[in-house]
Amino acid sequence: MDSLFQRSLDDIIKGLRHQQAGESAFVSKVLEEVRREIKSTDSHTKSTALQKLTYLHSICFVDMSWAAFHAIECISYPNFTHKKVGYLAISQSFQESTPVILLISNQLRKDLKSNVEVEVSLALECLSRIGNLDLCRDLTPEVFTLMASSRIPVRKKAIGVVLRLFGKYPDAVRVCFKRLVESLESSDSPPIVSAVIGVFCELASKDPKAYLPLAPEFYKILVDSRNNWVLIKVLKIFTKLAPLEPRLAKKIVEPICELMSKTGAKSLMFECIRTILTSLAEHESAVKLAAGRINELLIDEDPNLRYLGLHALAIVAPKHIWAVLENKEFVIKSLSDPDPNIKLESLRLVMEMVSESNVVEICRVLVNYATKSEPEFCNVILGSILSTCSNNVYEIIVDFDWYVSLLGEMSRIQHCQKGEEIENQLIDIGMRVQDVRPELVRVGRDLLMDPALLGNPFLHRILSAAAWLCGEYVEFIRNPVELMESLLQPRTSLLPPSVRAVYLESAFKALVFCLHSYLKSATSSDHSALGLSDPGVSKENHITPDSVLHLLNLIDMAVGPLSGSYDVEIQERARNILGFTELIKPVLSDSLHPQDERHKQQVEASKMVRLLHDTFSDELGPVSMSAQGRVPVPDGLVLHENLADLEAVCGSSLPASSATISFEGSHNVEGATSIFISDQKEESEPSSESTSLLAEHRKRHGLYYLPSEKNTEHHEANNDYPPANELKSELAEQSFLPKRKSKQVKARPVVVKLDEGDVLPISSKIPQAKDDSLSEAVRDVLLGNEADADTLTQKAAADSVIRKKGKEKLNAKEQEDDLDHMDSQSGTVQNPVKERSKRSSRKQNADEGDHGGDKGKQKRRHRHGKHRTREGVQNPPANVISQTPVPDLLL
Amino acid sequence: MGIRFILMVNKQGQTRLAQYYEWLTLEERRALEGDIVRKCLARNEQQCSFVEHSNYKIVYRRYASLFFLVGVDNDENELAILEFIHLLVETMDRHFGNVCELDIMFHLEKAHFMLEEMVMNGCIVETSKSNILSPIQLMEKTS
């Protein structure tokens, strides 16, 4: 009855096509029907319902995990149409953890043994899609049998499944590997070779070393095969193998070059190019040939080939940059290609070409392209300029004045969204490179002066950096009054609070500087005989009494209202400034209006101002990330006890943080434990107060400081500094070493470079959780331990009587195996004997259902016997694996 | 694993066939198909057929109203995948005769079987049209 009124899949598809809107209502209605129909006992109704569900699942993203059991029911139907619906549903919707997955094990075995070819194919297909450890272990013997099937399509599929078996159940290698290797030689049936090469290509990409002994077989295919698909796969295998064995590389380079020049298929030609560039880059002549072919690709009309040509250049760039330079013009022209992918690829190449000598020229070109490009690509360009130039502490930058003004120019590009990166670099350069500070301050001032920039939220971070730089290095400012005006201009209300706080702090510094120079000049005019002159105060920024008055008024007007700000940072800083001006005003006002007592007042005022000025003029420098690590651990402090676990938890996240730099003044008592490095000549005298505090602190906690014996001799003047400075002398020597070229007109300024702390620790590559057991199994099978493999092969197929006999021998072998394993793993016991024997006993149980019979077993044994003799000739004995993995036959 | 997925999408962005060779949840599939379709369908004829997407790349080709999109590992040969797409289309053409979107919609199962013949575990295993089609013909006879 059900099936009479049941809608077929075609009805559903038609229905779906006619639903313009309300598709989901239609789908849920169908789903309701399906839920009802699928419970039917009639096989046709059930399978049709499942078919509809599968369709909705793959097209409309409808969940079908609830129907897993019904799918299993369908594959057990004898009718092929129903069966195939079930199989399709399973391969589309099952995953390894589907709860009912083990229920299909028996049905799969039955279908694998079926006489109907398509049924076997369906089962193999299904296994290759959803096989998990249990399924793969249970069905390995059946697949092994099918690998020798006389029906080519079945054999081909069985070979395809092997990849899944190996991946999920590495012990399958011991059973199936030899047959897989034998299939390599079935040159009479191309589909088999094609399938088996695909399997080896995947296997070799994971652990190439294990497959080196098969190089002669692969070589034969490389030379003999006429199938481009197969050749491409073989080339991929050789790409992985060649770097491991130079003799192999020598051997294959000629046939590959020949293939490259002869073939008409672009795909094969490109694969040859890629193989040569990746793995045979030492063979100069081959690379030259490949470069010639790349040139052909680059001038082709087809954008695909142009893209691949650029891609190939990117591969060759690290080792043979000449190949890229030859095509420089084309690469730069491609920056304006209509295809964004080609643009990106050419940008990568341009960045590869950058060197100390051409960085200025290339950046000029790139910035031009950036201004012309659409926002997205513009930012990609800016991003790669920034990252290339800052690479390894600005390694390629010689002229920092140029670079800093380039940063300023980049900030002004309309679409620039790289505020954060530019901010970091501006500040970083400010701290590292002394010589460039005047230029930095100039660039910063220009940015601050422009009221239009305040309206662009992407620039706020850059403005923050500019404000900080101008405040910190205010002594280089030509006109500090003008700077104050721009820091306090009304439009700063557009800034976010955090940036505004920086503005205020900088205004404070600038104010102190102005007052300091004013008082200083007033004093020096009085005591000109003493000839006091502050090097920071040049004639140009001479401050008049009028401008001081103007400044104080400006602060009252602009900062006054901020003392009630809701943002604590702003409020606090505003109050600091206002408090200071309140303090200084009465004393100053006297000095501004000359009277008799003027001198006394002025002294008081200058004392206050000097105190603050000294505080602000202390140098800030980068702090090494490893600074903390250099503090010796005091006796009696056990770090490992409780913190070891913490390290495991946080270890990976810590080095990633970009906070390589923290601001620590040497006067800062808390900061004294961190290593403060900057150029000593420049270090201004710390206020005596802080120095004495520091000394006291050090006396009390001397334990926490680095030893300082040597230091005293070298730096007498700085006796009181943290002895960490000791490191500096070595460091200075290092970074002062002249490594510039003679043609440079301008010497590269000193860039303060910390030791290893600057470079992010190269994350020690955690060896991939590779399938060690798989590689191990492959090695065992390929290079010795033959008896073991043989035993296992027998075990997989043979009946229990034989197994009992061989058991003792087997166990012994296994133990040996495990010892080997432990040796090679240097102590990491991953595969204890227990586990292994447990597995094999499980396997025995699983094999119970198999009654292959003695006949089949003997046949197989015979086959292996034959194979062993052949391999015995080809392969070196097991104990020399590491020395000569490639058989001499080839070489 | 070579090929990660094969999609057929019409120019309105509706999925007509989706075959994945690694397990993804429905939500992941939906997101992935949305992303890819947005990325690829916006491109024009003058642009190349390769698109980088997260940690793999997509090779695609348009036939009339249908886009064939194949997600592959980065070291896969792009041109070979283009040839693979073409082979797939030719095979379907041979079977359906002047194949169009509707053929795939109404014979989704067959299209899946063709793919199963051609690709296993993400590896291309068969490239001969008659070999690909013979099991399907056999199935038609059997059922």
UniProtKB/TrEMBL annotation, chain A:
<feature type="compositionally biased region" description="Basic residues">
    <location>
        <begin position="857"/>
        <end position="869"/>
    </location>
</feature>
<keyword id="KW-0653">Protein transport</keyword>
<dbReference type="InterPro" id="IPR016024">
    <property type="entry name" value="ARM-type_fold"/>
</dbReference>
<keyword id="KW-0472">Membrane</keyword>
<protein>
    <recommendedName>
        <fullName>AP-3 complex subunit delta</fullName>
    </recommendedName>
</protein>
<keyword id="KW-0677">Repeat</keyword>
<dbReference type="InterPro" id="IPR017105">
    <property type="entry name" value="AP3_complex_dsu"/>
</dbReference>
<dbReference type="GO" id="GO:0010008">
    <property type="term" value="C:endosome membrane"/>
</dbReference>
<comment type="similarity">
    <text>Belongs to the adaptor complexes large subunit family.</text>
</comment>
<dbReference type="Pfam" id="PF01602">
    <property type="entry name" value="Adaptin_N"/>
</dbReference>
<feature type="compositionally biased region" description="Basic and acidic residues">
    <location>
        <begin position="844"/>
        <end position="856"/>
    </location>
</feature>
<dbReference type="GO" id="GO:0005794">
    <property type="term" value="C:Golgi apparatus"/>
</dbReference>
<dbReference type="GO" id="GO:0006623">
    <property type="term" value="P:protein targeting to vacuole"/>
</dbReference>
<feature type="region of interest" description="Disordered">
    <location>
        <begin position="787"/>
        <end position="891"/>
    </location>
</feature>
<comment type="subunit">
    <text>Adaptor protein complex 3 (AP-3) is a heterotetramer.</text>
</comment>
<dbReference type="InterPro" id="IPR002553">
    <property type="entry name" value="Clathrin/coatomer_adapt-like_N"/>
</dbReference>
<dbReference type="InterPro" id="IPR011989">
    <property type="entry name" value="ARM-like"/>
</dbReference>
<dbReference type="GO" id="GO:0030123">
    <property type="term" value="C:AP-3 adaptor complex"/>
</dbReference>
<comment type="function">
    <text>Part of the AP-3 complex, an adaptor-related complex which seems to be clathrin-associated. The complex is associated with the Golgi region as well as more peripheral structures. It facilitates the budding of vesicles from the Golgi membrane and may be directly involved in trafficking to the vacuole. It also function in maintaining the identity of lytic vacuoles and in regulating the transition between storage and lytic vacuoles.</text>
</comment>
<keyword id="KW-0813">Transport</keyword>
<dbReference type="GO" id="GO:0006896">
    <property type="term" value="P:Golgi to vacuole transport"/>
</dbReference>
<keyword id="KW-0333">Golgi apparatus</keyword>
From TrEMBL, chain B:
<comment type="similarity">
    <text>Belongs to the adaptor complexes small subunit family.</text>
</comment>
<dbReference type="InterPro" id="IPR011012">
    <property type="entry name" value="Longin-like_dom_sf"/>
</dbReference>
<dbReference type="GO" id="GO:0006886">
    <property type="term" value="P:intracellular protein transport"/>
</dbReference>
<protein>
    <recommendedName>
        <fullName>AP complex subunit sigma</fullName>
    </recommendedName>
</protein>
<dbReference type="InterPro" id="IPR016635">
    <property type="entry name" value="AP_complex_ssu"/>
</dbReference>
<keyword id="KW-0472">Membrane</keyword>
<dbReference type="GO" id="GO:0012505">
    <property type="term" value="C:endomembrane system"/>
</dbReference>
<feature type="domain" description="AP complex mu/sigma subunit">
    <location>
        <begin position="3"/>
        <end position="141"/>
    </location>
</feature>
<dbReference type="GO" id="GO:0005737">
    <property type="term" value="C:cytoplasm"/>
</dbReference>
<dbReference type="InterPro" id="IPR022775">
    <property type="entry name" value="AP_mu_sigma_su"/>
</dbReference>
<dbReference type="Pfam" id="PF01217">
    <property type="entry name" value="Clat_adaptor_s"/>
</dbReference>
<keyword id="KW-0813">Transport</keyword>
<keyword id="KW-0653">Protein transport</keyword>
